[in-house]
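WARN no homologs supplied; continuing
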Amino acid sequence: MYPRLLKSGCLVLATACATLMPMGCRKVPPVTLACVASPPAIFPGSAVTVTATPGDLSPKKKPSVIYSWSGDGVTGNGTTAAVNTASLTPGMYTVKGEVKEGKKGKEGLKPGESASCTASYQVKAFEPPTVSCSANPSTIKPGESSTITAVGMSPQGRPLTYKYSATAGRVSGNGARATFSSAGAPTGTVGISCSATDDKSHLATANTGVTILAPYVAPVPHTEAMCPVTFERDKKRPTRVDNEAKACLDQVALNLQKHPDAKVVVVGEADAAERAKTAKEEKAQMRHKHIKVEDLAAQRAVNAKDYLVTDKGIDAARVSVATSAADGQKVEEYLVPAGVRFSSDVQGTASVDETKLKPQPRKPLEEKKQKKAAK
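OK structure emitted
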């Protein structure tokens, strides 16, 4: 009777195994399989490869070896498998691999002829994009435009689309640059919003602003008071334009030269005593027409005008004379810009009838005394 054929391939008599078995004859170890996923973490749509490494496959006559794979989106071929992650949601996933060896058609039927392994990988959620927003220029005039620039970035390089909105006016464009039009917008700061959206509907927003300046309004011109001329120093000739008065009137003439479209109004004044004397003379003239009425306020204005016209060459049509009821021995000069009504800015003046008054000469008092002595 012959002994059984052991799996080890050693033919040994059951009763004489100890004496006939060759040294090192032992049981063949079972097949093993190890798996690894690379890379271990990805974003949806990125590739994952799982590699299986078998161990202790029987080298005898190269037995038939079969690999199989299972898992979400897994397709395998031999020792490697590919994972299609495009449709996977964020989370942890496992791929299972299996190997079988043995006679063709009978792989894995015997103990130790099959093994399995698992490999895990993570599908990460897409990170949202970021965006910044700026306006150039940031300050404009009404009706002007500004360029709006959005700088978006997706950590995973996803395509981005841009949108814009404004609290007033209008933003046109849907790319990384747009144009803000201030037409119809009020003055002040207009808020502008920029948004960047990736193809996974993740949204990022940023804000900027454009300041619309108030339209320039030219100041309304008004009558401008200039230096006054006083007549208090010469008691004997209280209407004479002396040298100190000339300094002021020279400045008036210079202003008229700088503003060729402006005019000047010279307003004479008298003190209370002088006005009372004039009133008395006017009353007396009603009875005696030969009595001369001396209106010192009007005479001062006429004399000041005469200096401007005769000595400084100012066109007489640009100089008007008037009187005021203000108390003082002086003349006030007013520069009147083109288009301005003097009477709207300065009230309480009366025009002087220049046909009834002649300007008085500016001769020094000594000349008069010399002429009187010569006679």
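The two ends are 190 Å apart (CA to CA).
OK
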